[in-house]
Amino acid sequence: MPDPVITLAHVRKSFGRTTVFVDVSLELCAGSVFGLVGLNGAGKTTLIRILLGLLKPDNGTCRVLGHEPWRHQTDLYRMLGVVLEHNGFWGNLSVAQNMRFFAKAKGIGRPDLEAYLREQWATTAIIEKKGKVKYFSRGEKMQCALCRAFLGWPRLYLLDEPAIALDIKAYDHFCGLVRRAREQGATVVISSHQLDAIEDLCDSVGILENGTITFLPAKKQGRRPWLIRAQMRPEYGAVIREMTGGETVYRDGAWRFDIHPADTRVIGAMVTKLAAMGCDIGEVREESAGLRESLRKYYGPSRDNGVV
Amino acid sequence: MKGIGIIIKNEWLNFIRSDRGVFLVYGILIAVWSIVLASNLHRSAFETNTLWWIFFSVIVSGTFSNTTFVSERLSGALEIVLTCGLSRAAILAGKVVFIICMSVLFGLLCYGCALAEAAMTRFVPTAGMTAGDAAALVALYLAACYMNAACGAWLSIRLGNPRLSHFANLLVLGLIVGTHALLAAFVLIPAWALPAALVCMGTLFMLFALRDFASERVVQPYAF
């Protein structure tokens, strides 16, 4: 078995009287994408800061790429790609000037930097912008932060809310970068409240709560849940079963079924057929709430009003 | 330390690409202080100019400490810089050297303006000031800038509210100069004593800042 990229063993961390982690253990190997979720204040950012060596665990073991992060070795930082809450750019400089600084700091030469920008970011307009970074929109700053994180294709990525404010094009680009990094054998940790991003990209998901990490079951590969909001008539159910080749259930005013992403063309034919049968269709959509539902089940109803 | 140059270059680029309003404020600062200096030049009292230079240094270096240390820390940008692949000592040293260089630049600009203003009015060139006095003044200004930069670096991490570091810095400098003035009233103190004291204090603050840069405090919220 290859050496783990991240090893956290029985890590405890507190700030004064406030204990953030009681006993956090985590082991991630090369080529994996790990999603870290949790409620506000659960300690996701603190965990990333510990992995970065910005905070020191009270006790337990923390090793990242064979180094102890708290020793602040520059060799370790040169193998990391980081997105944190704040973009960390020199606001008066342009993107290109900022990138040149971070490339120099990581020991990446100018030709390599330019090749990276040309190959990976030519499709986006962000690199061409000449203005000061401080006047960029939030989404543009996030794109710049991602550009910096993937610079030099490091071995480990620690990304705290990396998909915030990204438009659909930038989001797809980000997903492409993560997939390419994984193909190269890099490890990616994504901490986010954007469950779609976690679901799209992560091989495994951990919930940080009450100072420990609980792993969710691996997501189902292949079929995705869909729903068609329509009347409850057995013949409609039969059509759906026949066309999807699977089961369907009627719940909350909609027919629910699973379908493989490659077979989504069937949906159009199914809708046409149901409409021809006189079915009054109110809504057709993919239910992208698999992880959301898992989390709702995990946390249970809100104590205040029963609404999650 | 590898990386100091990279930090200095970026701080410089960040400064020269500041908005026009920033330069206007610095221009007014230089104009006002050079007028004060020019009005003292004809008297050429070394003691008068000494205090002027010391408190000019704290204004300039305090302002640059505010942008290079305090703002970066409060905005969270420092976390990224600390994890970019440069050593923390290089980052700290680069920023301190940048502040000293900018303070010297502003000092030269101010002195140049004062000479020009005095020449236009009632200039009595360097009356009463010996070469030794001038060298002591330069040493004092450099030492004060170093002390202010180091103190600003440390206070930006150490203070509960780093925005007050400017005032705290002024207080520290005032204490040192005040103590010197008090002692000078009773015993004869050589001209090099005050610059030496400032350099010693600056080095002490640098050591404190280095220690705190390597601690958790560097990224903790200021209420920690």
What is the secondary structure topology, with strand pairs?
The complex is a heterodimer of chains A (308) and B (224).
Chain A (H helix, E strand, L loop, with lengths): L5 E10 L2 E11 L4 E5 L6 H9 L6 E6 L9 H4 L2 E4 L11 H11 L4 H12 L16 H12 L6 E5 L7 H16 L3 E5 L3 H7 L2 E6 L2 E4 L8 E6 L4 H11 L3 E4 L2 E6 L5 H12 L6 E4 L3 H10 L9
Parallel strand pairs in A: 3-7, 3-8, 5-6, 6-7
Antiparallel strand pairs in A: 1-2, 1-4, 8-9, 10-12, 10-13, 11-12
Helix pairs in contact in A: 8-9
Chain B lengths: L3 H13 L3 H22 L4 H30 L1 H6 L5 H33 L10 H28 L6 H20 L8 H21 L11
Helix pairs in contact in B: 1-5, 2-3, 2-5, 3-5, 3-6, 3-7, 5-6, 6-7, 6-8
Describe the fold and architecture.
- The complex is a heterodimer of chains A (308) and B (224).
- Chain A is α/β, with parallel strands linked by helices.
- Chain A is 34% helix and 25% strand.
- The C terminus of chain A is likely disordered.
- Helices cover 77% and strands 0% of the residues of chain B.
- The mean pLDDT of chain B is 86.
- The interface between A and B is medium-sized, with 31 and 29 residues.
- Going by CATH, the homologous superfamily of the largest domain in chain A would be P-loop containing nucleotide triphosphate hydrolases
The gross shape of chain B turns out to be globular
Q: What is the residue-averaged pLDDT of chain A? A: 87
State the assembly state of the protein chains.
Answer: heterodimer
Biggest interface in this structure? A-B, 31 and 29 residues
Measured as a percent range, the helix fraction of chain B is over 70%
What is the distance, rounded to the nearest whole angstrom, between the alpha carbons of the first and last residues of chain A?
A: 41 Å
Please trace the helix and strand order of chain B, writing H or E for each element. Answer: HHHHHHHH
* Tally of strands of chain B: 0
Computed over alpha carbons, the radius of gyration of chain A is 23 Å
Query: Would you tell me the structural class of the helices and strands of chain A?
Result: alpha/beta
